[in-house]
Design goal:
single chain; 291 residues; Alpha-Beta Plaits; 5-stranded antiparallel sheet; 12 helices; 7 strands; 12% strand; elongated
Length: 291
């Protein structure tokens, strides 16, 4: 070595962290998650990757957005475990499956001091320099400027108030407002809300495949005819295993019975662990907690 020092430009630094940038963009743009919270999530995942969980970020990026969102939720639980004492029993089954190592919340609890310091260093030294431009663009898009607000207000005032439009009618405005069928929209939103209230998200342990039939039979024995629809993760290869599913029950009372006052319930179906929690649309997620 001749002792020569090389200066890495910011563009080169961003190029080097291209995978991290892509994943961050999925989190904040595609999934609509909080930009600052996602900096912490990325810091946590980079910390795991540098701690021996090989290719952790690229593995996450290879998953469908819905599953990435669930992994991000588990990352928030891990961050809470590092920074505070969790007030409830929680599990991180997807993180455990992806890591292919024995990892649990106890791991984060035992390494909380080191994790807190090193994650913050990664956020400051890696995440902010490589991701801040995406964060700023996303924040700008989330907050329309004054001229945009005035334009939208003017367009709205040019049409009749929504409450005065008869159900089933439509407004066609040249100001940029698309055709609006109020009756259909109101009904669709009501149906969507009702369906969300009756939906649960289910995760399975990697290496212990659970079939749709097994889950259906388990709850049929408990409650009788209770399931409206069942959506299992699609797998490409016969050797692959579904890691999650969404179940829509006929009534929300079934969900209350399953959870029994807790946020996440754990069941054993034919000797295999299954975790269930109420499905929460991304626009109803609670505000994040920061480091």
């Amino acid at each position: 070595m001749d002792g020569t020092q090389y200066t890495v430009t910011l563009d080169e630094f961003k190029l080097f962290h291209g995978i991290d940038r892509t994943l961050y963009a999925v989190l904040v743009r595609d999934l609509g998650r909080d930009t600052l919270e996602c900096l912490q999530i990325m810091g946590l995942w980079l910390w795991l990757e540098r701690g021996g969980f090989c290719n952790f970020v690229s593995k996450i990026l290879s998953l469908p957005p819905f599953l990435i969102n669930e992994l991000a939720d588990e990352a928030v639980i891990c961050l809470k475990c590092i920074n505070t004492q969790l007030s409830e029993v929680a599990e991180i089954p997807l993180t455990h499956s992806l890591a292919k190592k024995d990892i649990s919340l106890q791991f984060f609890q035992e390494n909380k001091r080191t994790a807190r310091h090193e994650i913050q260093s990664l956020i400051t030294g890696v995440c902010i320099p490589s991701l801040s431009d995406i964060m700023e663009k996303t924040r700008h898009n989330e907050s329309p400027n004054h001229s945009q607000i005035m334009l939208l207000s003017h367009a709205a005032s040019a049409t009749s108030p929504l409450t005065q439009i008869p159900a089933g009618s439509f407004v066609d405005s040249s100001s940029g407002i698309s055709t609006l069928r109020t009756g259909g929209i109101v009904k669709a939103r009501a149906n969507e809300t009702s369906r969300n209230d009756r939906t649960m998200f289910v995760t399975f342990s990697k290496g212990y495949p659970v079939s749709e039939t097994e889950v259906r039979q388990f709850f049929t024995r408990l409650f009788g005819n209770c399931i409206e629809s069942f959506l299992m993760q699609e797998v490409v290869s016969p050797n692959e295993q579904a890691l999650y599913a969404k179940i829509v029950f006929l009534r929300s009372s079934f969900i209350r019975a399953i959870l029994s006052g807790v946020s996440k319930a754990k069941f054993t179906i034919n000797g295999k662990h299954v975790w269930m929690r109420k499905f929460v649309p991304k626009n109803e997620r609670p505000l994040p907690m920061y480091l």
